[in-house]
TrEMBL record:
ATP binds at G10, P11, S12, G13, S14, G15, K16, G17, T18. This is Cytidylate kinase. It catalyses: dCMP + ATP = dCDP + ADP; CMP + ATP = CDP + ADP. Its main location: cytoplasm. It comes from Pseudofulvimonas gallinarii.
Amino acid sequence: STVPVLAIDGPSGSGKGTVAKRVAEALGWHLLDSGALYRAVGLLALDRGIPLDDADALAALALRLPISFQPAGEGVSVHLEGRPRDADLRTEDTGAAASAVAAVPAVRDALLARQRDFRQAPGLVADGRDMGTVVFPDAPYKVYLTASAEERAQRRHKQLMEKGVATTLAALLEEIQARDARDMGRSVAPLKAADDALRIDSTGMSIGQVVKAVLDHVVLHG
Ligand code: C5P
C-alpha cells in the first residue's frame, strides 16, 4: 500500500494513546487503537465464559469480532455487539484479559487483516505494541514511546485520583511492571522497538512536547 502509516508502539502508560489521538487529529489521518481489539476479545471472552487459554474458541471470536467504532462527541465510542462498552473495556480486569488473549498466536493472526483494513487514505496513525514490527513493518514512520515505570505509575495514579478511585502508587507500579514483563516476555510479537523506530523517552516531557516531537518526525521525513 502507498498509504502512509505512522506506527506508535510502547508500553502501557507511556502516553501513546493520547499522543496517537492528537497526532492523528493534527495530520487529519485515521486512527487505529489496536489495544481496543485485544480488549474487546478479552471482555467478550469474560462475558461468554470462554477460558482465556482456549486458543480455538478465542481465535473464532477474534475472526468475527463484533466491534465497531462510532463517532461520539469529540471522540469515538467502542461498540460490541451494537452496544457501547467503553467503561467495561477500560477496566483493569479487561486489561488483564486482553494481555492474556494477546499471548495466543491464533488470536493475533485473526486480528491482522482487521488491523490492516484501517490503512486508508490519506494516512493512518496506528497505536499498539507491534504496529511497527508485525502489523505494518513497511510503515514509513515509526515511533517507540517509553517512560520510566515510576513515571507511568505516577501518571496513572494522578488519573485515578482525579476520577476518585483510591489506589496506592506502590500497587500501580507493581501492576505496570507485571504487565511490562508479560508484554515484553511473550514469545509472539513481544513488545520491542522496531530497528528503524525513533525512540522517544517521555519521562519528564509534557504530552504537548511529545506530540510536537512526533509531528516533527513525520513532517521532516515526509
Ligand atoms: O494498549 P492497551 O492497554 O489497550 O492494550 C491492552 C493489551 O493488549 C496490552 O497489555 C497487550 O497485551 C495487548 N496488545 C497487544 N498488541 C497490540 C495492542 C495491545 O498485544 N498491538
